C-alpha cells in the first residue's frame, strides 16, 4: 500500500540557514513518481518537482535541491540559504500506477517558518 | 495560460444544508481531482476523473457527497446534507493524462465552514 511520511511537523530556522525537509515513502510498485509541492499562506499548492523511480539523480534548482535515495525510500528536500518567502507548508506526494491510471497520496506536510 | 478556477472561494452553511462547488480545469487537462484538506492535514483525495469517467472515488463519502464532470471539462462537487466535520478547504486540481504521472495544478480552493 502507498504511504508517505513527513515526520517533521514544523521546523523553524533563521534566515540564511540551510534546512532539509524529510520524506519517506512506501510502495510495492517498481514504477512510481515522487513530487514536492509548496503551500504558501495564500493556500494554493504549487508544484516544485517530479521525480520518477528510475531516475535517482539528485536535482538542484537555484536554492532548492532534492536527494532521492531508493535504498532508504527517501526523497528529501533541502533549501539553501533560506529566505522568509520560503515560509510555507511543504508536501511530499507519491503516485503509483493502478488500474490504468495513477493514484496519488500526499504526506501530512511540514510547516517551515523562516524567521528574519 | 489560465490556471484552475474554483468558485465560490468561501462558503458558510448550517449543518444539514447542501452546498455545491465548481471547478474549471486547465484547458487540455484530461484528469481532474477533488481533494478535501482539513486544517493542519495534507490533501485527501475524494474523487479523480479522467475525461468524464470516474477512476477513483474510494474515499468519497457517497452517502452525502457526489461529483460529476459532464462533457469532460468542468466539474461540480456537492455535499448534501453537510455535517460539522465537512468543514475544510476543498481543492480542485488538474493534470495531463497519459502513460506518465504528471504534476497537478491546483486551484485556490473553497473554504467551507459548517456551523
Structural class of chain A: mainly beta
Global Rg of chain A: 14 Å
Helicity of chain A, in percent? under 10%
CA-CA gap between termini of chain B: 37 Å
> What is the strand tally of chain B?
11
Estimate the mean pLDDT confidence of chain A: 93
Order of helices and strands of chain A: EEEEEEEEEEEE
Global geometry of chain A: globular
**Most extensive chain-chain interface:** A-B, 27 and 25 residues
Main sheet makeup of chain B: 7 strands, mixed
On the 0 to 100 scale, the average pLDDT of chain B is 93
Structural class determined from secondary elements of chain B: mainly beta
Strand content of chain B: over 45%
Instruction: Identify the quaternary structure here.
Output: heterodimer
User: How far is it from the N-terminal to the C-terminal residue of chain A, by CA?
Assistant: 41 Å
How many individual helices of chain A? 0
Strand content of chain A: over 45%
Instruction: Give the helix level of chain B as a range of percent.
Output: under 10%
Order of helices and strands of chain B: EEEEEEEEEEE
Low-confidence runs of chain B = none
Radius of gyration of chain B: 13 Å
Amino acid at each position: 500500500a502507498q504511504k508517505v511520511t513527513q515526520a517533521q511537523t514544523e521546523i523553524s530556522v533563521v534566515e540564511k540557514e540551510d534546512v532539509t525537509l524529510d520524506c519517506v515513502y512506501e510502495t510495492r510498485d517498481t514504477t512510481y513518481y515522487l513530487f514536492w509541492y509548496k503551500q504558501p499562506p495564500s493556500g494554493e499548492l504549487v508544484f516544485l518537482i517530479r521525480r520518477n523511480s528510475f531516475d535517482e539523480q539528485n536535482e538542484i534548482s537555484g536554492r532548492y535541491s532534492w536527494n532521492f535515495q531508493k535504498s532508504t525510500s527517501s526523497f528529501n528536500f533541502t533549501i539553501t540559504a533560506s529566505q522568509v518567502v520560503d515560509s510555507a507548508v511543504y508536501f511530499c506526494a507519491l503516485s503509483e500506477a493502478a488500474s490504468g491510471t495513477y493514484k496519488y497520496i500526499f504526506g501530512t506536510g511540514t510547516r517551515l517558518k523562516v524567521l528574519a | 495560460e489560465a490556471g484552475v478556477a474554483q468558485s465560490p472561494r468561501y462558503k458558510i452553511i448550517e449543518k444539514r444544508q447542501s452546498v455545491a462547488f465548481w471547478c474549471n480545469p486547465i484547458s487540455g487537462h484530461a484528469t481532474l481531482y477533488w481533494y478535501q484538506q482539513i486544517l493542519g492535514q495534507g490533501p485527501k483525495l475524494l474523487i479523480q476523473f479522467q475525461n468524464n469517467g470516474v477512476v477513483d472515488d474510494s474515499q468519497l463519502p457517497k452517502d452525502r457527497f457526489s461529483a460529476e464532470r459532464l462533457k469532460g471539462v468542468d466539474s461540480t462537487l456537492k455535499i448534501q446534507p453537510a455535517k460539522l466535520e465537512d468543514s475544510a478547504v476543498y481543492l480542485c486540481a488538474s493534470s495531463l493524462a497519459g502513460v506518465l504521472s504528471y504534476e497537478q495544478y491546483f486551484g485556490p480552493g473553497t473554504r467551507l465552514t459548517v456551523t
